[in-house]
Design brief:
The chain has 185 residues and is α+β, with helices and mostly antiparallel strands. The chain has one domain: Umud Fragment, subunit A (Ribbon). The protein is built from four helices and eleven strands, in the order ααβββαββββββαββ. Strand 6 and strand 7 form a beta hairpin.
């Protein structure tokens, strides 16, 4: 028996199914990531300007709030609760706002500032001081007080009330578009 017959020649060709298996694994992983961990999101309003602008593209983290509650200062993504859906002609599929006060805290908006538990909040990200007054009211258990950074151009808790935490679907994790503004919002 010759050596050529005992050892078949390797040509560099892979088995045709190996590429299909690899493609299936990559596609399956992408589907699982999108379903359970992250999701792309496009900003469609200026209610969070200057932090987020129309056309910004974000990655929404779907994982964090499965294990911990939102904190003050977090930028959350949520489905519109019934009060918001009733207050606008065409409710969006998702809204993005900043958590300002948590359950049990007393929140008030006066003199252009947000006050939580009697303390004025330092908010360098706000577009301009709020031109309205609201509260004081205690945030109920299981709910959040959320505001847009563009206080005078945002349909948020000052307009439609507290956000039931169960409507929060994720947090704005990272902006990837436009490239010059990429990073944590």
């Amino acid at each position: 028996m010759s050596t050529a017959q005992a050892h078949p020649k390797v040509t560099g060709r892979r088995l045709p199914w190996a590429g299909l298996v690899l493609m299936g694994v990559v596609l399956g992983g992408a589907v699982l990531l999108r379903a359970f961990a992250v999701r792309p999101l496009r900003v469609i309003s200026d209610s969070m300007a200057p932090t987020l602008r129309v056309g910004d593209r974000l990655v929404m983290d779907l994982w964090t709030y499965r294990f911990e509650a939102p904190e003050a200062g977090d930028i959350v993504v949520f489905e519109p609760p019934p009060a918001l859906a009733r207050s606008v002609a065409e409710p969006p599929r998702h809204s993005i706002k900043r958590v300002v006060a948590l359950p049990g805290q007393v929140v008030q908006v006066r003199d252009g500032q947000v006050w939580v538990d009697g303390q004025a909040r330092h908010e360098p990200y706000v577009a301009e001081p709020a031109g309205y007054t609201w509260g004081p009211e205690r945030v109920p258990e299981g709910e959040l007080f959320v505001l847009g950074d563009n206080r005078n151009a945002s349909a948020d808790s000052h307009a439609w009330g507290f956000l039931p935490a169960r409507y929060v679907t994720g947090r704005a994790w990272v902006r990837f578009w436009p490239p010059e503004r990429a990073g944590r919002p």
